[in-house]
Amino acid sequence: MKSEARLKMKMTGRACNDRMSFTTKQQGAVLVVGLIMLLVMTLIGLSAMRSTILEEKMAGNFRDSNIAFQAAEAALRDGEKDVLCQGGCTRNPAISGLINFDASCTAGLCGGWSPTVWTDATKMGNAVVYGTYTAATAISGVAAPPKYLVEGRKCNAAGWATWKNCYQITATGFGGSLTTTRILQEVYIMP
Fold first, then answer.
1. Distance from C-alpha of 23 to C-alpha of 189, rounded to nearest angstrom
2. Contacts of 64 (CB under 8 A, 6+ apart)
3. Which long-range contacts (CB under 8 A, 24 or more apart) does 112-119 make?
4. pLDDT, averaged across the chain
5. Tens of pLDDT along 43-66?
6. Is the pLDDT reported for residue 24 higher than 70?
């Protein structure tokens, strides 16, 4: 009987066992389905990673933008202190009316108003760096200290008995990089 089994094994290349006959009829379909499932899971994983990386970049940019906004806001407050000469003001001479305001914005004081003063590189080159005249402490976490310009002119509004000195303060703040900037403006009217 052993010799007969050996003979069948030589002829077919496999043992004559009924259990083995089921495995020989498979054509590899499970392998193909498994590889397709693996490919689909890989694509889902890559998509999730890409989404997470994008959200992380967005959060970082929002943080950087917020830092720039806060720096510009601090420069506005510094400009107000400079105009009022409060908090250890060291500007000499101190801002008084519209004296020392000129077209080239010497020492950060600009004569007249320009809604787009920040686009003029020459004028922004004369902008006052945060804390220069008020001894305010430096802001950490910014690529460059914020700066401001003060534009002065006389203004009058309905209901005012006289003309008043009005100051438009334009402040530029930087975030963690120099490419992130925020520009804020306010009009400060002397009481």
1. 92
2. 175, 176, 177, 180
3. 112/151, 112/153, 113/151, 113/153, 113/168, 114/151, 117/149, 117/151, 117/170, 118/149, 118/170, 118/172, 118/183
4. 84
5. 999 999 999 999 999 998 999 999
6. no
Q: Given the structure tokens 């009316």, which residue do they identify?
A: 97
Please list the residues that pair with 164 across neighbouring strands: 155
Q: Which tokens in the block code for residue 127?
A: 């902008």
Cα separation, 155 vs 38, whole angstroms: 72
Tokens found for residue 118:
């920040």
Give the chain's length. Answer: 191
Longest dimension (CA), the chain: 127
Looking at 10-19, 115-124, 129-138, which range is the least confident one? 10-19
Amino acid 22: pLDDT: 53
* Segment 73-84 mean pLDDT: 93
Nearest Cα neighbor of 182 from 69, 41, 30, 67 is: 69
Q: What is the mean pLDDT of residues 1-24?
A: 54
Query: How far is residue 35 CA from its own chain's centroid?
Result: 42
Note whether 83 and 94 are within 8 A (CB): no
